[in-house]
Amino acid sequence: MARLSDAELRELKQGLVAAVVGAGVDDAALSVLIRQLTTDPDALKPVVQLSLNDPSRLAALNSTGLMAGGAGRTLDTVALLAAEALATPFVAISLLDDSTELLAGLNVDDGDCERVRSADLSIGKFTVATGIPFIVDDAKDHPLLAGHPTVLSGAVGAYAGIPIFSDDDDAVGSMCAWDTHAVNWTGGQILVLQDMADLASAKIFRRPI
To answer: Does 209 map to a domain?
Structure first.
């Protein structure tokens, strides 16, 4: 992969942020990104990887020991509570290092969802790379997700992810919910997901609640 200039990386990051925030915020940057993705589906990989590789972010994540230790019952309970509050079938606490995604908390049995996978297959990487919520009502129509394997397979039809931050405001993962069909996420659901992301962060970094 050719090394991109700083200007090209900035352009890609602007397009990524525009795509995550949604139409109407920066349509020009979004249009440029869509053209780039049409030519090269992996166009965003360098800017996402730059965020995933950030030393401060990785240090915060590694300090939790979760990437090495795997899932925890406490975080599964947080995911289960979130799923019940949102009335949605799937909720996970996703953590990402530079190459791997771990669903450290999950509301369904392990046999129903893969806990560990390549970061390349993660949807949560877009939340981590931008540090902002990623709310998608219909994944089939979204420029970042329409061609994603989990969307093409029908496993993900709608997605909502809220960043999980360390004590130093590094995004280490996301609190995410998804369904197999399109969903009109409500403001109340997003607020609940934000509250649960804050709870997950407190559990992960052992802060008082």
So the answer is: no
